[in-house]
Design goal:
The complex is a heterodimer of chains A (about 110) and B (about 120).
Chain A (H helix, E strand, L loop, with lengths): L8 E4 L5 E6 L11 E6 L6 E4 L13 E6 L2 E6 L8 E8 L5 E3 L3 E5 L1
Parallel strand pairs in A: 1-9
Antiparallel strand pairs in A: 2-6, 3-4, 3-7, 5-6, 7-8, 7-9
Chain B lengths: L2 E4 L3 E3 L4 E9 L8 E6 L5 E7 L6 E3 L7 E6 L4 E7 L4 E7 L9 E2 L3 E5 L2
Parallel strand pairs in B: 2-11
Antiparallel strand pairs in B: 1-3, 3-8, 4-5, 4-9, 5-6, 7-8, 9-10, 9-11
Classes of the chains: A mainly beta (about 110), B mainly beta (about 120).
């Protein structure tokens, strides 16, 4: 099972919007609407932002949104804030009770 | 409240074995699989596999087969991950509790440092 492909880094200025892509295959993202996104600050555990591709858990800001097209999922963060600077990971269910993570994207808020 | 409390940091020599624990509280331990996730320093997250706390059934991702062992003691709501250490990493336990197919509860991680 190969890791999902994410850009290594993205950046944006406060107030702007950014999008992080996550590309998989027909065996994971393309087969299931079960992509989740996680935010991880240095030294902390990951925190789920999006699940089932587009849904937000209770307490997660509406500035975070998810989408999917084919084998690619995306996370959009609108109205960038300094506290959004972190690493972001996508994860997809890949069938037969297996999961796969992306390589991670470092977000820099300029 | 719902939490997963992991054991403390360890320092091991290359090739040694280490056993990390993950104690669950605030929910029914046997109702949800425990997943383990590895993160090498400065690297991304890797899903390692899961254990069913009720039956003890487990699944290891291909990359970790032969290198890890997952066990549990349901009487004390604790899951264990035993790994043969070749390089340093943080090991997280996680549960898909409220959300299906996504990990909404995480332990704080256990750092295993490998040093000769």
């Amino acid at each position: 099972q190969s890791a999902l492909t994410q850009p290594a880094s993205v950046s944006g200025s406060p107030g702007q919007s950014i999008t992080i892509s996550c590309t998989g295959t027909n065996s994971d993202i393309g087969s299931f609407d079960l992509v989740s996104w996680y935010q991880q600050h240095p030294g902390k555990a990951p925190k789920v932002l999006i699940y089932e591709g587009i849904k937000r858990p209770s307490g997660i800001s509406t500035r975070f949104s998810g989408s999917k097209s084919g084998n690619t999922a995306s996370l959009t963060i609108s109205g960038l804030q300094a506290e959004d600077a972190a690493n972001y990971y996508c994860c997809s269910y890949a069938g037969r009770t297996t999961w796969v993570f992306g390589g991670g994207t470092q977000l820099t808020v300029l | 409240q719902v939490q997963l409390v992991q054991s403390g940091a360890e320092v091991k020599k290359p090739g040694a074995s280490v056993k990390v624990s993950c104690k669950a509280s605030g929910y029914t331990f046997t109702a949800y699989f425990i997943h383990w996730v590895r993160q090498a320093p400065g690297q991304g997250l890797e899903w390692m596999g899961w254990i069913n706390p009720t039956s003890g059934d487990k699944y290891y991702a291909e990359r970790f087969q032969g290198r890890v062992t997952m066990t549990r003691d349901a009487s004390i709501s604790t899951a264990y991950l035993e790994v043969t250490t070749d390089d340093s990493a943080v090991y997280y336990c996680a549960v898909a509790l409220i959300i299906d197919y996504a990990f909404d509860i995480w332990g704080r991680g256990t750092l295993v440092t490998v040093s000769s």
